[in-house]
Design a protein that fits this description.
The protein is of the alpha/beta class. The chain has helices at 55-65, 67-87, 92-100, 105-111, 136-153, 160-182, 200-208, 221-232, 272-285, 302-309, 315-320, 323-329, and strands at 20-25, 36-40, 190-194, 213-218, 242-245, 258-264, 286-297, 333-341, 344-350. It has a single domain, classed as Vaccinia Virus protein VP39 (Rossmann fold), CATH 3.40.50. It has a 7-stranded mixed sheet with strand order 5-4-3-6-7-9-8, with helices on both faces. It has a two-stranded antiparallel sheet with strand order 1-2. Residues 24-43 are annotated as: Disordered.
């Protein structure tokens, strides 16, 4: 088992001084390859020097405000992901083509809520796509991008699959251990994955908790169509995943109906007001003893931050938001942060 030492961080941000010092294998009844669970040294969370009203942050903002330079930065950020993928033998273009030339479009009408009103922030360009997450190209490339991010987090892994198993395995183990330590409930029966994208995190949750009913929820019907399409291609589950097109801040799902709510790599794309809204909605949806787990970026280098900020309009707000305090103010207890890989942290809390 990996070392797990929950630490409550009262400061707002991460100063990531982590080091991968062991890799261990964990056996479990999952449909994915057995995850490797790694342990990390944990550091104090501090606000990065390049976020907020600092000279470096203002310089980055000034660069991005110059339209020709912004286009170059946006193109560069996209190329970083694609080149990382290709260097690590992720068939980015092949995976994208396979989705775009499939029958995925038939899923769209079955999943889209035509009455849904998108929040204003969601209509911004994201990830170098002019239409943001509301496009087929973004949905078709999402899984390859996710695989690439996993390899960047664990560059010494022997393969992309191993890297993603480490990243996801540590995340899932942190959830399990926090739930066992802090929840009065014995089992996780109902899971909601908010901001599920094309369902990568959702499927990992369903594999780890096969007896639970799992729901993936997202604002993009394009992402959900891909998620539903890919799930139909897999071996049928005892408890099929449900997919819901809704706003994570106002899901219209019943109160007190979930044991675990997950937000995996979501809130760095949100303004502070949306992060607060997501946390409050999660609290409403969880049963007493239920748990919220938020996994997202820890610290980035200034160079990578500059590239990412050109495609992530709310990245600065994310790094200036005290997620632990936000959860505490929403009435969560047992709020802890842990570093689950060198690039990502998981913040967890339970409902009294």
């Amino acid at each position: 088992m990996a070392l797990y030492t929950p630490i409550h961080h009262s400061s707002s941000k991460l100063s990531l001084q982590s080091k991968l010092f062991s890799t261990k294998t964990r056996h479990g009844p999952t449909r994915t390859q057995t995850p490797h669970v790694s342990t990390f040294e944990e550091g104090q969370l501090e606000q990065p020097k390049w976020a907020g009203e600092t000279p470096l942050s203002r310089f980055v903002a000034a660069l991005i405000s110059i339209k020709p330079l912004y286009k170059i930065l946006k193109f560069g950020a996209r190329q970083v992901l694609i080149s990382t993928a290709e260097k690590n033998k992720i068939p980015w273009r092949e995976m994208t083509k396979k989705i775009l030339e499939s029958e995925v479009y038939k899923e769209f009408e079955t999943i889209q809520d035509t009455c849904l009103v998108y929040p204003d922030y969601y209509l911004n360009p994201f990830h170098a796509y002019d239409d943001g997450n509301l496009s087929w190209l973004a949905a078709a490339e999402a899984e390859a991008a996710t695989m690439s991010i996993g390899k960047r987090a664990i560059p010494n892994a022997s393969s992309v699959d191993e890297a993603n198993q480490v990243v996801r395995g540590n995340w899932l183990q942190a959830i399990e251990q926090h739930y066992q330590l802090c929840s009065v409930n014995s089992t996780i029966n109902d899971i909601l994955d908010i901001g599920c994208s094309v369902g990568v995190s959702t499927r990992f949750l369903a594999d780890r908790f096969p007896s639970a009913k799992v729901t993936g929820l997202d604002l993009s019907p394009y992402f959900l169509a891909v998620a539903q399409f890919k799930e139909k291609e897999m071996v049928p589950r005892k408890n099929p995943i449900s997919w819901v097109h809704a706003n994570g801040e106002a899901t219209d799902l019943p109160s007190n109906s979930f044991d675990l709510v997950s937000l995996a790599y979501v809130i760095h794309e949100c303004p502070t007001r949306a992060i607060v809204g997501l946390v409050k909605e999660a609290f409403r949806l969880l049963r007493p003893g239920g748990m919220l787990a938020i996994t997202d970026n820890s610290e980035l280098s200034p160079v990578l931050f500059t590239l990412m900020k050109s495609t992530e309009p709310f990245l600065d707000e994310y790094y200036l938001t005290d997620v632990e305090e936000t959860m505490t103010e929403a009435s969560f207890v047992n709020v802890y942060s842990t570093l689950t890989d060198p690039r990502h942290r998981t913040v967890m809390g339970t409902v009294p």
